[in-house]
């Protein structure tokens, strides 16, 4: 049945007509043990203007529907018409959702190892309507009370903790207390035979859940997860002037889930985040960032919610900024800014310089359009802009303004105007110029240093005119032997295209944005370029080196540096860097520059340079696991692999990397793959076996992997891993047909919801066996035939690949 996407004007009209009092939702999960059916009865109490008419959203199969005791007409396009409303109304709609394998909103997953069944819901932005009837828009908030009947061996988790449990003929019935007023995308129900770990911390009851076959990984990581959770709750409660207002805080790790979701009091995660091996420091950094991002949403998004999706950035950009703020101030990950600089921020710089660029805040006509802006502009650019705002007004002032914002608007809905007003009140500054420049215009500034007769000048060129108002740091570094000593620094408040820089001495390098206070690309002068390319290891701090690496990478993507120069710069930094949360992404970027950005004639030599850097890390004990993975991925033959097997020993994770590289070099050892799959305790070890075969340069292997991704037999959380194995350099002959198969798949990649649309369009995009004309063709087909979420994701990915192609021709 085709469904309509809610338009903003419809949402405004409906919100003016009615107010939701409560949702009481009775759910029956007993049919999911052996079948697909998710059953729900949604009882909605609401007030309205008497005599008015509207509709309720419902995309599940309707079994019965009444309004004030009178039967309702059949649903059309995901809507049930409601006429002749009373002042007080009761709507009761019984539904069944049977597409719980590839449908939206509700998912039934089967653990391949022990065949246990797990059920989860996930609703952002408007997929609650696929689970039960509701008024599915963010500004119609209401308490949700769940009563869930489930098999006797299952545990049910929802937003409210401490449910009442009773035995019934069908199994057990779980009754949860009503939530505070929540938007319809924010409630959750998850169920299955979970393993559970709980801990008391600072008055909170913290819970962790995972499928039984991941019990050992959950128990291994539980102490660290509880520590991070307690640190985050304490930090946000203090900085926002509002402790998290519920005693329970649960986190559930789920099979076949994509990403993570900030459901109030019950965060859900893809359980691939639970590493099957001992996590590396960089993997823990990712874990901490996501944990704190979803936690920040408890305040920014859940307690206070945007009125409409044009203020989506109020959710995502703020949570992304806040997670890094909390990580640096409250956890062991004090180098989060440097980690972000050599990671997500690079993606935002690139996206904001190409066709994917858009204002952080932009008109969103329908909810379907909102799906298309979950991207690098909304997340890392938005986070960087808010960090700039905090520096612009001062951290204490920023915290005061946010506390006032939450106190005034708790459990309600806001717009950007409300946020800006709170910060203006706290700072005493007119923030309208800042707001217009940063949030409502697109593009990234280019900053630089110019030497004049009157002294240093900071140059600033806006993408579409004047540069943004911003405060930026400039550091002066003077070479002494192999060391670049910082001999001065200053903060410059940019007020135009040219701003005098006062108080800095003569230096060999003036590093703009050396303390990462703004969102802008920068370029060194001629002398500074020589330092950044040939001797960035001389910079004295991890953050300064990260700024240098971000600058060098942006030069690569803009065609101003070659892949060879970039590999040289990154491997030079890796001779001195010891902060593993920076070492690991730098190593990955060096590897990517060698394999994906370099001309084919230079690739093997640059891979050898990266391998030498990895051997140095192994010898010094820095990021050993990651370095051995790189050595496996760059091994050139039997001798390399034999030496590596000696170093790997019994490490199952690294043994998979060795087998995958063997396959890429043309030797698929089926017996070894089967033996390792049987020995690996990971319930998803079959994915690693698939990746081994996907790396092989054979048509049969590529076809198997492609089918697993496109036909959705592989979980969405694993498609990036499989795709990386699939698209390998030097295999153009066997990869060429998949460029057109990608184009043919574009109209269907969004089926199943926003997460598949985002993930598949991005990771399946070819990186080899294509040219610039093909990229143009793919963009044209997507614009004509694909969903908005696919168009947005493809546009961002295609720009990066287009720049790779150009770099290969240098």
TrEMBL record:
Which cofactor names does the annotation list?
A: Zn(2+)
CDD domains, per database record: M1_APN
What GO biological process term is on the record, naming one? peptide catabolic process
What is the catalytic activity of this protein? Release of an N-terminal amino acid, Xaa-|-Yaa- from a peptide, amide or arylamide. Xaa is preferably Ala, but may be most amino acids including Pro (slow action). When a terminal hydrophobic residue is followed by a prolyl residue, the two may be released as an intact Xaa-Pro dipeptide
Q: What class of enzyme is it?
A: hydrolase
Q: Which domain of life is it from?
A: Bacteria
Record keywords: Cell inner membrane included? no
Q: Which Gene3D superfamilies match?
A: Neutral Protease Domain 2, tricorn interacting facor f3 domain
Q: Which UniProt keywords apply?
A: Aminopeptidase, Hydrolase, Metal-binding, Metalloprotease, Protease, Zinc
Question: Locate the ERAP1-like C-terminal domain: which residues?
Answer: 509-775
> Which is one GO molecular function term here?
peptide binding
> Can you quote a single GO CC term?
extracellular space
What residues does the Peptidase M1 membrane alanine aminopeptidase domain cover? 229-432
SUPFAM superfamilies recorded: Leukotriene A4 hydrolase N-terminal domain, Metalloproteases ('zincins'), catalytic domain
EC number(s) on file: 3.4.11.2
Q: Which InterPro entries match?
A: Aminopeptidase_N-like_N, Aminopeptidase_N-like_N_sf, ERAP1-like_C_dom, Pept_M1_aminopeptidase, Peptidase_M1, Peptidase_M1_aminopeptidases, Peptidase_M1_dom, Peptidase_M4/M1_CTD_sf
Q: Which family does it belong to?
A: Belongs to the peptidase M1 family.
- NCBIfam families the UniProt entry points to: pepN_strep_liv
What is the name attached to this protein's record?
Aminopeptidase N
What is the originating organism of this protein?
Nocardioides zhouii
